[in-house]
């Protein structure tokens, strides 16, 4: 069993990219995938919920906090997200701090979102680390994983996922996961495309080699002393799903730890 | 063409030091070098421009400004030099001077100038030369440059020294922002070796290409030909294509500084 906790659809072609996603899942042996709205909200919370509802065996939906809405819509947004969490139409709330220019420990702005997630027992998920180049307004200072430690301490009953393991701030992200029992991480989206092939067509050798990424993963894994609260995710279509599954299957760790990463941790966290 | 994107001389014994630099450049087959001016120790724009005038094919000049104390006169002077194309960039020294690179109000006038004359802004980043005990590292962290790059998308910015030791932070800023470049100068007082090669390869792996990374030495911290040559050898030995090597060694700087 494999659960991919981190996938997206393309706003420019929702239907086409949904077909591609389902096909990629079949090809990669992924049984279930968490569908996350886009940072621009072009693919919205309601949209991913509807799509997941149409494919209940294959997909589950994760909502997103839209912080660019005018303040007068905020309470409406919160009650909508809360109702969707209660009815399990969504199983978490994604927060794009780097894209929205807000620090995770800005409790005035984000506290209400943490509160509804805590109350319903579903996680908030933070984008951390590198932001995709085409999104020009994103600022990295808001995407540092270290600040999430503040949230974890302030809200000990809130479950938190550090998406992308803070890449390349992996050491910081892992320290936060290690220290706080309520913090999880996925290692999705570490590269464009497939391991071993450069998308840029550049001839720099070795830059997407799985050895390089295996070392990155293993440094974190060894520091953390195991796979507790580590989740499998791809960030498909950014990273290639089949290639990510293959990469994860080849990691030099015991099978029972791999099982936790591939589905056990996710099943429990998202109550699947 | 091989271009050293980061060298310093001094107002004292300029002639002798220029000869040293040329000797080191010749020994390592470096065609051209960026003379970056400084305040402490003094290496003024006047001096640098004189050196450039004497050896027009070997050097180009990067001016500098101290934004906290600069007057309108200083800005006019800078603009005059830009207009005459006597300087090809403006260097800032956060860390040595107490301001953050994302201090928009403070830096706006210079960003405007740089954009008008289409030249890059260069920031000192990372660890600071220990002789200057007053320097404060918090101002020299590269992360604040991301803010500036987003707020001024039409300006070109160079992260000097790649933020060393915050190389990873500098790398992701370069990866993310089209308008941000880096030079690999000043990582070591000694000739560079495998340890620096590993750092450089880490950067190239992360970026997936080499079109915004520039060879530079920080000549002045070490003045031997071996020091300069060790950088070239390191780049020549990287497991990357020869066209990528050429970019790092000079093509990227040639394009950016239009020299």
Question: How is this structure best described in words?
Answer:
The complex is a heterodimer of chains A (272) and B (259). Chain A is built from ten helices and nine strands. Chain A has one domain: Alpha-Beta Barrel (TIM Barrel). The two termini of chain A are 12 Å apart. Chain A is of the alpha/beta class and 272 residues long. The radius of gyration of chain A is 17 Å and the shape is globular. In chain A, the strands form two sheets. In chain A, strands 4-5-6-7-8-9 form a six-stranded parallel beta sheet. Chain A has a three-stranded parallel beta sheet with strand order 1-2-3. In chain A, α1 packs parallel to α9 (241-249) and α3 (74-86) packs parallel to α5. Chain B is α/β, with parallel strands linked by helices and 259 residues long. Chain B contains nine helices and eight strands. Chain B has helices spanning 14-27, 45-54, 72-83, 104-116, 143-151, 167-176, 194-207, 225-236, 242-257, and strands spanning 3-7, 32-36, 59-64, 90-92, 121-124, 157-160, 180-183, 213-214. Chain B starts with a strand and ends with a helix. The relative contact order of chain B is 0.15. The mean pLDDT of chain B is 95. The A-B interface holds A 129-133, 136-141, 144, 168-169, 192, 198-200, 202-208, 212 and B 143-144, 146-147, 150, 153, 168-169, 171-173, 175-178, 204-210, 239-241, 243-244.
Q: Give the terminus-to-terminus CA distance of chain A.
A: 12 Å
Q: Tell me the CATH topology of chain A.
A: TIM Barrel
Instruction: Give the tally of structural domains of chain A.
Output: 1
Compute the average pLDDT of chain B: 95
Q: What is this entry, summarized?
A:
Chain A has 10 helices and 9 strands.
What secondary-structure arrangement, pairings included, does this model have?
The complex is a heterodimer of chains A (272) and B (259).
Chain A: E1 3-7, H1 14-28, E2 32-35, H2 45-54, E3 59-61, E4 63-64, H3 74-86, E5 93-95, H4 97-100, H5 107-120, E6 124-127, H6 148-154, E7 160-163, H7 170-179, E8 183-186, H8 210-224, E9 230-231, H9 241-249, H10 255-269
Helix pairs in contact in A: 1-9, 3-5, 7-8
Chain B: E1 3-7, H1 14-27, E2 32-36, H2 45-54, E3 59-64, H3 72-83, E4 90-92, H4 104-116, E5 121-124, H5 143-151, E6 157-160, H6 167-176, E7 180-183, H7 194-207, E8 213-214, H8 225-236, H9 242-257
Parallel strand pairs in B: 1-2, 2-3, 3-4, 4-5, 5-6, 6-7, 7-8
């Amino acid at each position: 069993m494999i659960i991919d906790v981190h996938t997206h659809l393309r706003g420019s072609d929702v239907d086409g990219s949904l077909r591609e996603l389902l096909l990629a899942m079949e090809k990669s042996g992924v049984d279930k995938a968490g569908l996350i709205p886009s940072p621009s909200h072009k693919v919205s919370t309601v949209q991913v919920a509807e799509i997941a509802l149409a494919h209940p065996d294959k997909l589950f939906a994760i909502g997103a906090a839209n912080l660019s809405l005018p303040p007068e819509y905020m309470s409406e947004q919160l009650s909508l997200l809360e109702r969707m969490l209660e009815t399990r139409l969504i199983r978490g709330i994604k927060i794009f701090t780097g894209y929205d220019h807000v620090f995770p420990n800005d409790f005035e702005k984000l506290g209400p979102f943490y509160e509804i997630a805590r109350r319903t027992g579903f996680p908030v998920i933070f984008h951390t680390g590198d932001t995709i180049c085409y999104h020009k307004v994103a600022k990295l200072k808001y995407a540092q994983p270290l600040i999430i430690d503040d949230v974890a301490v302030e809200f000990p009953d809130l479950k938190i996922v550090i998406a992308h393991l803070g890449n390349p701030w992996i050491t910081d992200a892992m320290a936060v996961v290690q220290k706080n029992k309520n913090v999880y991480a996925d290692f999705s989206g570490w590269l464009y495309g497939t391991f071993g092939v450069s998308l840029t067509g550049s001839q720099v050798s070795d830059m997407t080699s799985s050895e390089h990424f295996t070392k990155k993963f293993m440094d974190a894994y060894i520091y953390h002393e195991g796979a507790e609260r580590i989740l499998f995710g791809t960030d498909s279509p950014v990273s290639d799903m089949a290639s990510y599954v293959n990469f994860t299957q080849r990691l030099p760790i015991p099978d029972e730890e791999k099982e936790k990463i591939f589905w056990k941790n996710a099943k429990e966290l998202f109550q699947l | 063409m091989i271009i050293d994107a980061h060298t310093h001389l001094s107002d004292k014994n300029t002639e002798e030091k220029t000869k040293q630099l040329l000797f080191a450049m010749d020994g390592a087959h470096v065609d051209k070098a960026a003379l970056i001016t400084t305040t402490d120790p003094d290496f003024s724009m006047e001096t640098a421009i004189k050196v450039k005038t004497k050896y027009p094919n070997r050097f180009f000049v990067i001016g500098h400004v101290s934004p906290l104390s600069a007057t309108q006169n200083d800005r006019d002077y800078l603009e005059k030099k830009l207009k005459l194309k006597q300087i090809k960039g403006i260097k800032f020294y956060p860390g040595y001077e107490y301001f953050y690179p994302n201090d928009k109000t403070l830096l706006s006038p210079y960003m405007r100038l740089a954009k008008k004359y289409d030249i890059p802004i260069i920031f000192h980043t990372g660890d600071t030369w220990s002789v200057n005990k007053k320097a404060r590292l918090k101002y020299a962290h590269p992360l604040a440059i991301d803010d500036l790059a987003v707020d001024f998308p039409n300006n070109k910015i160079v992260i000097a020294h790649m933020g060393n030791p915050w190389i990873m932070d500098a790398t992701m800023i370069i990866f993310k922002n089209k308008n941000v470049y880096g030079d690999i100068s000043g990582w070591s007082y000694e000739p560079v070796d495998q340890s620096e090669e590993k750092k450089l390869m880490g950067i190239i792996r992360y970026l997936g290409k080499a079109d915004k990374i520039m060879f530079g030495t920080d000549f002045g911290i070490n003045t031997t030909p071996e020091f300069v040559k060790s950088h070239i050898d390191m780049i020549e030995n990287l497991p990357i294509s020869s066209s990528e090597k050429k970019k790092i060694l000079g093509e990227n700087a040639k394009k950016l500084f239009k020299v």
